[in-house]
Amino acid sequence: MTTTTAEITTAAPASPEDRLKDWWSTSIVDIEPGRIAFRGYPIEQLIGRIGFAEMVWLMVRGELPSPAQAALLEACLVAGVDHGPQAPSIAIARMAMTCGVDINNAMASATNVLGDVHGGAGQAALELYLAIDARQRAGAPLAEALEAVLRPLIAARQPLPGFGHRFHPVDPRAPRLIALAREAVAAGTIGGAFVTIGLGVEDWLAAAKNKRLTVNIDGVTAVIFAELGFSPMLARGLFILSRSVGIMAHAHEQAQQGGRIKGPTPPAFGYRYAGPGRRSLTEPD
């Protein structure tokens, strides 16, 4: 079959206005004068009718969660808000406030240090669970999947994210979240595959290391985030959202307490100098 020139149609070029509008494309928010809608819901219908955890879910997932899903997400957000002024992000927020900046600067300074080492363990743990789950989906039993994913990490002496804690023998936040996750499995809110994987990692580690490294806040929230269908990137984002509450509270408290240019320790404690001994430049001839 041949096509004549008359049958060939060419799409009209986009107008400058359309090209400008297409520069940023979003399915999250629709705003016009006098109207604001999130994921299609007018803001006036959301205010006073849904909670903050539900709003978070709507914004990042596009749909509203069930009440049980929202409650499980909120439990994770509550659990991660703070871990004391010795946590680097919290300490930075407090020090920043004593330098005369405002609360937004202190909060930004604090959240900027929440990276792979401090703040990224939940994301890494979820990635670990997904790797184990992928092997199971390919047909491997759990024990084989655990061995295949975890043994190389142990052999390379890499720390396993989400297990053990430098301060707590047992992270006091974890058992309650595990209990809530199990209740959610029993109620049919979540499937339970990642609960099994997370607790399986804990058991595998106990056998491999001959000591029990219990799941911590990062490991258990990663289990719940995986069960709820959040991506690893959002696991980190949700932790930072949660910890921002503690950061804000500490920054505000420090502002009330006052203090000026406070460093990480009182000046009287000093620090250890490890450089060369006292020396001087040779005088020129």
Describe the overall structure.
The mean pLDDT is 92. The chain is globular, with a radius of gyration of 26 Å. 54% of the residues lie in helices and 4% in strands. The chain is mainly alpha-helical. The protein has a domain at 88-257: Cytochrome p450-Terp, domain 2, CATH 1.10.230.10. The protein has 12 helices and 3 strands. Helix 4 (67-79) runs antiparallel to helix 9 (174-187) and helix 4 packs across helix 12 (232-257). It has a 3-stranded antiparallel sheet.
What is this structure's SSE topology?
Blueprint: H1 16-23, E1 29-32, E2 35-38, E3 41-42, H2 43-46, H3 52-61, H4 67-79, H5 88-98, H6 103-111, H7 121-137, H8 142-155, H9 174-187, H10 193-209, H11 217-228, H12 232-257
Helix pairs in contact: 3-4, 4-9, 4-11, 4-12, 5-6, 5-12, 6-12, 7-8, 7-10, 7-11, 7-12, 8-10, 9-11, 10-11
What is CATH's topology name of the domain at 88-257? Cytochrome p450-Terp, domain 2
Low-confidence stretches: none
> Which architecture name of the domain at 88-257 does CATH use?
Orthogonal Bundle
- Give the helix tally: 12
The top level CATH class name of the domain at 88-257: Mainly Alpha
Compute the CA-based radius of gyration. Answer: 26 Å
Total strands: the figure is 3
Approximate strand percentage: under 5%
Query: How far do the termini sit from each other?
Result: 97 Å
- Helix percent reads 40-55%
What's the main sheet like?
Answer: 3 strands, antiparallel
- Give the overall average pLDDT: 92
Structural class: mainly alpha
Strand order of the largest sheet: 1-2-3
The outline comes out as globular
Give me the CATH superfamily of the domain at 88-257: Cytochrome P450-Terp, domain 2
State the order of secondary-structure elements, H for helix, E for strand.
HEEEHHHHHHHHHHH
